[in-house]
Amino acid sequence: MKQERAVRTRQALIHAAAEAFERNGYVQSKLADISSSAGVSAGALHFHFANKAAVAATVEATAAVSLRRAAQKAQRPGMNALQRLTTITYALAELIRTDVVVRAGFRLSRDTPHGSGLDLIREWEICVQQLLAEAGRERLLAHGVAQQEMTDVIVGATTGFEALGRRQPKWLQPGTLHRFWRLLLPRLTTAEALAALRADSVPGIGSREGGGRADSGTAAPPPSVTLAR
Question: In the chain, N or C terminus with fewer CB closer than 10 Å?
Fold first, then answer.
């Protein structure tokens, strides 16, 4: 019972801390407010966390685990690299939209030099780089596509949606991503690959009728980057 209570207390503190960091940022958040919001004493907070940096590092780590799991779950057998990339963006946007710990983790990773060692945006950048490299090997990219430039566009846009979504949740709605991919994919991929993209990967783009899939019929292994494991 004591162990279960300790787990519940720790989870309550992580959630309360995430709400504080997401709302106020790292510097303005106070441990006293976090413990009060979690319904525990300051002593209970310090039993679990040595200081505010430790709380923030735990929020980031918890967010990272959730993001990695969501990225892995979004990928299904038979998907080619572009299908995996687009599907992951929808999964991560939904998680960011609905999970305050994930939102706080992203904000901490972007804004706070507290030395947790995590860099969620860099993980996402590497994930996009590797998936575009796979798409190139699968001959899915349009002629002349510069992979690093395209990586910069995708990472810049999607992390921008995350930042904007903290004030206006519409930026993290599927419709925003749909419009983004509808504009970008014709420049990114070949006409054949675009026609064969599964509709559930990019809603409204491509068709399941008569096009089959733009893959080899076997599941590619996920990239080695953490977010896509």
Answer: N
